[in-house]
Design goal:
The structure holds two protein chains of two kinds. Chain A is of the alpha/beta class. Among the domains of chain A are: 85-150; 313-383, no CATH class. Chain A is built from 13 helices and twelve strands. Chain A has helices at 55-62, 85-112, 116-150, 158-164, 184-194, 200-213, 230-242, 260-277, 288-294, 312-317, 322-330, 336-341, 374-383; strands at 9-20, 27-39, 44-48, 70-75, 78-82, 167-170, 248-252, 280-285, 297-302, 305-311, 360-365, 368-372. In chain A, the strands form two sheets. Chain A has an eight-stranded mixed sheet, sandwiched between helices. A four-stranded antiparallel sheet of chain A has the order 2-1-4-5. Chain A is globular and about 95 Å long. Among the domains of chain B are: 142-226; 241-309; 457-478 and 522-558, no CATH class. In chain B, the strands form two sheets. Chain B has an eight-stranded mixed sheet with strand order 6-7-8-3-9-10-12-11, sandwiched between helices. Chain B has a four-stranded antiparallel sheet with strand order 2-1-4-5, with helices on one face. The two termini of chain B are 39 Å apart. The chains are: A alpha/beta, B alpha/beta.
Amino acid sequence: MATEQSPILSVRNLKTHFKSGVGRNKLVVKAVDGVSFDIKKGEVFGLVGESGCGKTTTGRTIMRLYTPTDGEVYFKGKRITAGIEGPKNEIADVKADYKDQVKLLQDEHSEKGSNESVKKELDSKIEALKKERNEKIDKLKADIVKRKDDGRKDVKDKEVKELLKKMQMIFQDPVASLNPRMTVKEIIAEGLRIGGEKDNKVIKEKVEKVLETVGLLPEHATRYPHEFSGGQRQRIGVARALVINPEMIIADEPISALDVSIQAQVINLLNDLRDELGLTILFIAHDLSVVQYFSDRIAVMYFGKLVELTTSEELFKNPLHPYTRSLLSAVPVPDPDFEKTRKRIKYDPSMHDYSEDKPELHEIKKGHFIYANKKELEEYKKQLVE
Amino acid sequence: MADNLKLQVKDLTISFRTTQGMVRAVRGISFDLYEGETLAIVGESGSGKSVTSKAIMGILEGNAVINSGEIIYENQDLTEIDEENFHRIRGDKIGMIFQDPMSSLNPIMRIGKQITEGMLINGNHLLERSKRKYQAEKQNYINAKKYKKELKIKYKESKLELKNDKQSADFDKGLEELKSKYKQDLNDVHKNIQEKKSIYKQRKAEAKKEVKAEWQKTKSEYTKELEKLKEQYKNAKSKETKATKEEYNRKAQESFNKEKDRIQKRISELKERYKVSDNKTRILIKNEIRNTKEAFKQFKYEHKRKSFGSESQQLQNAIKQKREEMLRERKVTKRQAYERAVKVMSEVGIPEPEKRMRQYPFQFSGGMRQRIVIAIALTANPDLLICDEPTTALDVTIQSQILELIKALKNERSLSVIFITHDLGVVANMADRIAVMYAGKIVEIGSYKDIFYNPKHPYTWALLSSVPDLDSKERLISIPGTPPNMLFPPKGDAFAERNAYAMKVDFDHQPPYFKVDEGHYAATWLLHENAPKVELPDQLKKRINKAKKSSPKEREVI
């Protein structure tokens, strides 16, 4: 279990928007819209939601595969990527603020009359404001430059470069994510070679060791992906991520493309690895039963926003947000008597009235966050079960 | 229960010819399906569950061979029926819902066309009627031809047999005898075939004539009525003066104008509001304007059809309708298909079907697309529905919607359903009876209670315990290894390799079906009287006990 310590990954107000079209046809898809969470070392953090809710985009933005629109991602205390929309908007705000203030001053002074001294006073005041404004803007501009620098694809900072190796990804479809024309050894060693390892002996050693870790045999190294079954292919995907010795793994629906019996194999493997290597895992999936089984904490996502975040026991004991409830009621349970009589809950987002009271992520109980406005929060508090 | 048996599969064996040899996909499975029942077939990919369903639909790939077995539906063997006759069963009587809604819909064809397509193509009533009349004769002819083939095979086999014991002195003599007998038989068969063929041809011509005569009769009736209507129409028109006509038109125009004014007023009102409101409400108002315009269009259309109703015009409409009716006797008209499509679409829960008919598949969400696939399957009014993993490509929330829909439709139309999936949660929700398949064989079959609460086969145990439970965090029991290569099916029990409870006998001999209960059978040597007593895996036992003990309400998570 995770203990109280500084988080290994922290995501701050992350936004990733996809824009298309110009003018009238302009369309902005807010795939991720203001997501914040921390992942502690050694923890399995589950991210759940239906397809299209932005969970994969979140994972890929953290992996630096997408550039965020706004917000920051810190990995081991270092910022690894950041969006520039925030400071950009701030600059605009500062400018507008300045204009308003100048106008206010001018109005004030015009009442006093129009002699020389008054004019001088006004000018000096405006000058001061202007200086303040320019300072602020310069600061923000510097911030933008720095953020842009942090988000660059070719990382210059050596420290960050090393850091990024500590975060690896496992993809959903083991068939599509392995190059069919490369042998297993080549696939696994590719990351090592890119990382600068040139000694073939070392590479061979490492590959064989990692194959063993994921439950494959060293002689599998010379085979091609098509010679393996689905579960074994996913093991290769896991091995490819593990060979760099990562501290954190982002697993994007690693089992939803697999057969039931093989799903259990992969879950058990990930569970063992986490215990042995002390891995931190961001587990993205849409199947709540698997996520609940595997994760320490779970965040439920709906249309780009986190609606509920808490420990997995708490989520199943105290699901508060109606969307979480509807998700839970939709999970099929292999128990026919129960399954045939249960009631499904439908979630209708128009049930919330957010026109006046804007919703926020509130901590309703220690470690239990929920997206609600103040009125709803009161209602949710009543529903809490100890 | 035998009287309402819907489908019977007996000892079905299917292989695929490949360059490496024969892949034995299905190895002798048998099951019954009763009316209004859902049979779930569960298993891993490659266990042959989809192949079974395809065989029932008659859509096996070209390299598939049905080695033996029967699929009996409405007293005919589906494995013997030729393609031409299968048309009347596939889709019409047995509907199918496929796994991926995106790839089973045509992306460049409007939804409406895709739904009505089948109805229009299969909608020639006259042809159908005549076909039904000479079907028996045709089947006789086909059977006769088939007998010839069988004879050939038999001859070859017996020749081989003779060759095998060549040592015997009377080999030549035997061969001679065989040949002559074969020739004679062949002669008889040829004669029989010719006879059957001529009967069939004759009957076909007769049937066509009969149907044509029937159609002429109904047609003449209709023409008589039409003549009458036309007469009336002429009279009415001659009586009609300019003044009365104008009167009618004026009235109609008035009511139309009234509505038009109302709509225009409403729109201008909305536009005023649009100017002063903020972005969010603006979108709403825009939608509202669009909707009012749409409604007005509809009104205009209706108005044109209905209210310009002087007597002559009404008669004209009546004539049109009569003509349409006459056409409907002969075939499914476009309007009829459209009406039916709208009805079915609203039945499967697609809002505004008239509008949705004009859209393309990409304009629908995943759940809606699957609803359309279901609607297409339902337009032909099948009484047997095969669902091949209909929700695997969908999200949990949408999955539950689609499952509810299939369940509701099943009850409404008393459909029999074959439900194929590998998700045991879904099975628990849907199934009345369950067949567990592994490596081309049914390893356990029984009611849902038998399979979930009293499983007997180790494979069923493994499947049940490999699903994570919502309220336990114990290590999952995974099935080691992978399913066997069906190019070389194992000699004994196919699951023995991966089975922790395997005994020596499992590797050498295939287990027969042991009866556990009424309707509950399992193919495992563990049920043999000499087998050692084996307990259920602990985890599974705990789970079952818990499920049995607590009533469903107590277990409600929320």
